[in-house]
Amino acid sequence: QVQLVESGGGSVTTGGSLRLSCTASAYLHGRHFIGWFREVPGKEREGVAAVDIDNSTVIAKSVKGRLTVSLDQVNNILDLQMNNLKPEDTGVYYCAAGHPSSLYRVLSPSDYTYWGQGTQVTVS
Known about the structure:
Layout: E1 4-7, E2 10-12, E3 18-24, E4 33-39, E5 46-52, E6 57-59, E7 67-72, E8 77-82, E9 91-98, E10 112-115, E11 119-123
Parallel strand pairs: 2-11
Antiparallel strand pairs: 1-3, 3-8, 4-5, 4-9, 5-6, 7-8, 9-10, 9-11
């Protein structure tokens, strides 16, 4: 069982920055990904960015250039640095870990087994 705890959410104005952190209690066996997902009002949960233990990184096109993800394998922490935030980035951000069935599904929420409780990000 893997427990994921997110932190770092909050409220910022347009153009501001936030850094989210996800601390994992353990790593999964085999090649797995740990990533960030979000639920914005009126939309389904979507993948934002994910990384595996080899530091292969996948970032959604909608946030590329503004959001970066980094994995600290020593301390089991996944960070999401969010810059130039926009009101449409408002939502609940979740950390998740799992074994996507292919690289094409790395940002598919249904391919992830373990989820954190989420942290609210509000951009106004």
